[in-house]
Design goal:
Elements: H1 2-29, E1 33-34, H2 37-47, H3 63-75, H4 81-104, H5 108-124, H6 127-131, E2 132-133, H7 135-152, H8 156-172, H9 174-198, H10 201-229, H11 235-251, H12 261-266, H13 271-278, H14 290-303, H15 309-325, H16 342-358, H17 362-387, H18 393-417, H19 421-469, E3 474-477, H20 479-482, E4 500-502, H21 511-519, H22 525-528, E5 534-539, H23 545-553, E6 558-566, E7 570-577
Parallel strand pairs: 1-2, 3-4, 3-5
Antiparallel strand pairs: 5-7, 6-7
Helix pairs in contact: 1-4, 4-5, 4-7, 5-19, 7-8, 7-9, 7-18, 8-9, 8-10, 9-10, 9-17, 9-18, 11-14, 13-23, 15-17, 16-17, 16-18, 16-19
């Protein structure tokens, strides 16, 4: 017993040490970034920078977790709590994987090989996501980690830990967890069948059914709490607007005014208001509500020249097959996309498990059948993504991470419990060598991305410094002027109320924006832009004709005077009535 406790403590220390070395090494090479400006806005909402008070309604996350994060912001007002939370999630996943591998594999050589692979996998594949942090990919990491723990663990404490991880990932981004859930289900099925065949069938059946029920009841409770939390004030209306906006901007194409005048006239939108939809500054017009947005989205869908589904499926199959076997080095962080080394890691894992299974008869047949079903499910998930033509790396790499870690869990069990180490250990050794080849590429791509972001964000830093120095004013930022900015984590953290907002975006027309307007004494965006201390911020190369035309159409004659220019890229414009 004492020896077992010592080994457990030693494994915890080793896993924590490896995780810390990876984290510190990445921190020494790079600055951490929020990958997208969406993450920056989420941080602003949670921290209180958006409304002046840490907000529990984060819109993108389910209520319980956003309420908890906002509570920590209230307790630690000067900290980057959201950034810390995301980093804890991603490095926590790696710690749990290291720890479980060390606990599971008794053979010293196999344990060393497995841990070395996990380290080179983390650096060669995940490095960019560690540096450019995005909550969608982190949800996939948590789902994959849960699948790994299901396959490699046992006992009540393991089941509780898996439930907590799944619930947390669901709270952070429910849509991504649901996409990953088939992999978690396959992990559950694998352990259920293997345990069912080896143990007390009645007891095993009861334990696993209860586990599944508790897990799904927890998901339902999380969702119900979120529904209740968003059921009052103007949140139901805003959620309708949010869904309609998502449909219009993410899945449809906004119809031009010319040629569709009859439709737009029927819903009360003129040409200048339609232009606000095109440049995403629809917050300027109070009449563009959830009903209007929904009608535009529905009309856009009705006139869209859809590619026939058989053609889309055929095209997606071609892409899928290409992405299965195409190996190449990354040229940049996201585009042009390449799935290497993820795809060959997954391929070799399938082959290692397959050849190991051939050495057994009954259990081998089950493993081969399981691999076939798993491959079918992963193919269906990929086809869903490719047919929908929305495949950013935060989603595709998430799919591959979850699948790879699930397969590695099976390999780890084989290396620990069975006499087929020649196949599994050989496959992992091959993966170590191949993945090591990609580490310089991963480092170079992350460095190049850091240089690009520093170059892009430098003018924005000057802009926000300028805005912060003029607290007596309020600045409305053109939406497409704001989209290129991605903020560094843990750098000059300031959670005080920001004296700026954008003219559209996914938080536009929410109760949060209402609170922000109220904090500065405004009732709506249109009238606020005409007040003495309000200014428009727009990139120097962008036209402002749309703004003049919009106000003129409302019967308000305006003049635009350039008050300042920032970094040679942004114009600060005073909008006045003439």
């Amino acid at each position: 017993m004492q020896s077992s406790k010592k080994r457990t403590l030693l494994n915890i220390c080793i896993a924590a040490g490896i995780t810390a070395v990876i984290m510190l090494q990445i921190a020494a090479l790079f600055d951490y970034y929020f990958d997208l400006n969406d993450d920056v806005l989420m941080m602003d909402i949670l921290s209180g920078s958006y409304t002046g008070t840490p907000a529990a309604h984060n819109i993108q996350m389910l209520y319980p977790i956003s309420a908890l994060i906002s509570l920590f912001y209230r307790l630690f007002k000067g900290a980057d709590v959201y950034g810390i939370f995301l980093c804890i999630c991603q490095y926590g996943c790696m710690f749990l994987i290291f720890r479980r591998t060390l606990d599971l594999i008794d053979n010293k050589m196999s344990r060393i090989v497995a841990v070395i692979f996990e380290v080179v996998f983390a650096i060669g594949c995940i490095m960019g996501h560690f540096v450019y942090v995005q909550y969608t990919f982190i949800v996939a990491m948590m789902a994959g980690t849960a699948a790994f723990l299901v396959i490699t663990g046992s006992g009540r404490s393991n089941r509780i830990l898996v439930c907590l991880i799944i619930w947390l990932s669901f709270l952070v981004r429910s849509e991504m967890l649901l996409l990953m859930l088939p992999f978690a289900g396959m992990a559950w099925g694998y352990r259920f069948i293997t345990d069912f065949e080896a143990g007390d069938k009645k007891k095993i059946r009861t334990v696993y059914i209860r586990w599944a029920i508790v897990l799904f009841l927890g998901l339902i409770v999380c969702k119900e709490i979120d529904i209740i939390a968003y059921s009052y004030d103007r949140w139901p209306e805003f959620r309708n607007l949010f869904d309609a906006r998502t449909e219009l901007y993410d899945y449809q194409t906004i119809p031009d005014y010319d040629g569709n005048e009859e439709f737009y006239d029927s819903i009360g939108l003129d040409k200048t208001e339609v232009e606000l939809l095109f440049n995403y500054n629809f917050g300027l017009d109070e009449e563009i509500d959830s009903d209007i947005m929904g009608q535009v989205a529905a009309y856009a869908k009705s006139i869209k020249e859809e590619t026939p589904m058989p053609v889309r499926i055929q095209k997606a199959i071609g892409k899928y097959i290409y992405r299965l076997h195409h190996f190449g080095f990354q040229e940049s962080f996201e585009y042009p996309q390449t799935d290497a080394p993820w795809n060959f890691i997954i391929l070799i894992m399938y082959l290692a498990i397959f050849f190991a299974a051939l050495s057994k008869k009954k259990s081998g047949l089950f493993t081969i059948s399981y691999l076939a079903i798993l491959f079918i499910i992963r193919s269906l998930l990929w086809m869903y993504i490719l047919v929908g033509e929305r495949d950013p790396i935060r989603v595709t790499h998430g799919l591959m991470f979850t699948e790879a870690i699930l397969l590695f869990g099976i390999i780890a069990r084989m290396m620990s419990f069975e006499d087929r180490k020649v196949y599994t250990r050989g496959g992992i050794l091959l993966l170590i060598v191949l993945t090591l080849v990609y580490i310089p590429n991963a480092v170079n791509v992350s460095r190049a991305e850091a240089l690009v972001r520093a170059d892009v964000c430098d003018p924005y830093t000057k802009l926000y410094d300028y805005i912060g120095q003029h607290q007596q004013n309020f600045y409305w930022i053109d939406v497409y002027t704001s989209v290129s900015y991605s903020e560094k984590m843990f750098a000059d953290t300031d959670n005080s109320l920001d004296n700026y907002d954008i003219l559209g975006g996914w938080a536009c027309k929410s109760p949060l924006q209402d609170a922000k307007l109220k904090a500065f004494g405004y009732s709506d965006i249109q009238s606020s832009l005409l007040t003495a201390n309000a200014y428009l911020v727009i990139r120097s190369e962008y036209s402002t004709d749309w703004l003049v035309a919009y106000y003129n159409d409302k019967g308000i004659k305006i003049t635009l005077d350039e008050a300042d220019t920032i970094a040679g890229e942004f114009r600060i414009i005073k909008v006045s009535t003439s």
